From TrEMBL:
Keywords: Membrane, Transmembrane, Transmembrane helix. The chain crosses the membrane at residues 149-169. This is Uncharacterized protein. Residues 12-21 have a biased composition (Basic and acidic residues). Residues 1-11 have a biased composition (Polar residues). Residues 1-59 are annotated as: Disordered.
Length: 179
């Protein structure tokens, strides 16, 4: 009989050792009661939608960064922000590395941060002053999470003041050494 109960004694027999003292041990021992496919066990039917035809490939005239680990790109993808500038250069280098490598993901995170500043510079070059409060979500945070917002602003102010203080202290130290 198939049910959701764990039966540690079955696991004990199949492995020759007693692991019954471990809570949940052998929960997946019964292959007919595979907990990863509960819907299949309940309905005893194949799931619909497992086999499908690949949609037609989207055409594009912009650069698409593609992983080296998959032969094809997905059928449909976003084209609103093609790689460009310093962040684009970092992304191109990152995509040369494996998806399982820090050499891929850390540069992509760095490229995202640099992309934020590139966007701000782009706003200035187009004659627009960026609305940092709205773009960063600070208006919503002020309205819904005011305490956390105040803590963040205070922490940023203290850290900035400390860094500026250290900078000017070192600058004055070097001035004293030169005179």
């Amino acid at each position: 009989m198939i049910n959701d109960e764990t039966n540690p004694s079955e696991s004990q027999r199949s492995r020759g050792k007693d692991y019954s003292h471990i809570k949940g041990w052998g929960i997946d021992a019964n292959k007919e009661n595979d907990p990863t496919y509960p819907m299949k066990n309940r309905t005893n039917e194949e799931q619909e939608g497992y086999s499908w035809q690949r949609p037609p490939q989207q055409s594009s005239d912009i650069e698409i960064l593609q992983t080296a680990e998959r032969p094809k790109i997905t059928s449909v993808y976003g084209t609103s922000v093609p790689p460009s500038g310093l962040s684009g250069m970092i992304r191109r280098q990152a995509y040369k590395n494996s998806e399982s490598s820090y050499g891929r993901w850390l540069p992509l995170v760095l490229a995202d941060r640099i992309g934020v500043y590139e966007g701000i510079l782009q706003d200035f070059t187009r004659g627009r002053i960026p609305n940092v409060f709205t773009e960063r979500g600070w208006n919503a945070e002020w309205e819904h999470n005011r305490t956390s917002f105040i803590v963040k602003v205070a922490a940023t102010a203290v850290i900035t003041a400390a860094l500026v203080g250290v900078f000017f202290a070192r600058k004055n130290k070097y001035k004293d050494l030169l005179h």
